[in-house]
Design brief:
heterodimer; A: mainly alpha; B: mainly alpha; 3-stranded antiparallel β-sheet; 5 helices; transmembrane helix (chain A); transmembrane (chain A)
């Protein structure tokens, strides 16, 4: 493989990452080819020693997603971490998907339910006292507050659970390319 | 190369890079070629590793003019990196001592080997 093709395949694999990160990574590998040439090695030799560019790109992408998730725990960083995880897209992860997707779906559904309980708690709190709530207005206010705080508690619990799930995915992803993938493609 | 060799080498790659850098700053190509000679693995793996170590604050980078061509990115080990290195060297010594004890176990009784590690 020539230098141009290596860089092209690397870039293709990095698509979707921030521009400046891609530029930095590509510059690293360009520098490697320059240093190799100064060392008297051919482009093909250097490319062969570097290894498969698509696989390197997958590892770099996954690491970047992992770092984002580590530095900022937000829904969007969780989502991009999950995408980077899916990007590893190889057999063991495809096998895992039927397990992972329902879990993500259930967590999402629970979030929606918690939000609904919170909103209806607010409704009971505000509208209950004026609409003949069984037990009187004080009961309506307390019931409303109770529903809202239960929703907040359940939401916090769900948050912890989803952080745990994403962490577990990241752990598996690292395990994947450190142990499982080298074991599958021991030759490249 | 057998499977156990690959796993072992991948596991200690970070330790080896820190050890190299603790003896002087270096650039990725030089690190990679020294590692490739000694540890025999894809040179490309060095870049994901260096980026990870940089984000963990174990190394920092700076640019320096090279005698041939454009400036090179040099890596320098940080204090955190040195701490991590001495921790990992300690772990490595304990581990290899334990494995050696087991491998050579046929020559010396097990209990003796174990007590000598704890002592």
């Amino acid at each position: 493989m020539k230098r141009n093709e290596f860089i092209k395949r690397l870039k293709a694999g990095l698509k979707g990452m921030p521009q400046e990160d891609i530029a930095e990574i590509v510059a690293d590998y360009e520098e490697h080819f320059d240093a190799g040439a100064a060392d008297g090695r051919s482009e093909e030799e250097v490319a062969a020693a570097l290894g498969n560019p698509s696989r390197l790109a997958r590892e770099l992408r996954f690491e970047a997603g992992f770092r984002n998730w580590e530095s900022a725990r937000s829904p969007s960083s969780a989502w991009s971490a999950i995408l980077a995880f899916m990007g590893l897209a190889t057999i063991d992860i495809l096998i895992l998907l039927p397990v992972v997707l329902p879990v993500i779906g259930v967590v999402f559904g629970l979030f929606v339910a918690v939000l609904a309980i919170f909103v209806s708690g607010g409704f009971v709190l505000i509208a209950g006292p004026f609409s003949g709530f069984p037990g009187g207005w004080l009961v309506a206010i307390l019931a409303g507050l109770g529903m809202m705080s239960a929703a907040v508690a359940a939401g916090a619990l769900l948050m912890l659970i989803s952080i745990g799930i994403v962490n577990a995915l990241m752990w598996f992803g690292r395990l994947h390319y450190r142990v499982i993938e080298p074991a599958i493609h021991a030759e490249d | 190369m057998s499977e156990i060799e690959i796993q072992l080498k991948k596991g200690v790659l970070g330790l080896c890079v820190l050890a190299l850098l603790s003896r002087g700053d270096s650039y990725a190509y030089e690190i990679a070629s020294r590692m490739a000679d000694a540890v025999d693995m894809g040179e490309g793996t060095i870049y994901p590793l260096m980026r990870r170590m940089q984000s963990e604050g174990l190394v920092t980078t700076y640019l320096e003019e090279s005698p041939s061509g454009p400036p090179r990115k040099y890596y320098r080990i940080t204090d955190t990196g040195r701490e991590r290195l001495s921790e990992q060297v300690g772990d490595w010594r304990t581990f290899t001592a334990a494995v050696n004890g087991l491998i050579l176990g046929s020559e010396a009784p097990m209990e003796e080997g174990e007590t000598s590690h704890e002592a």
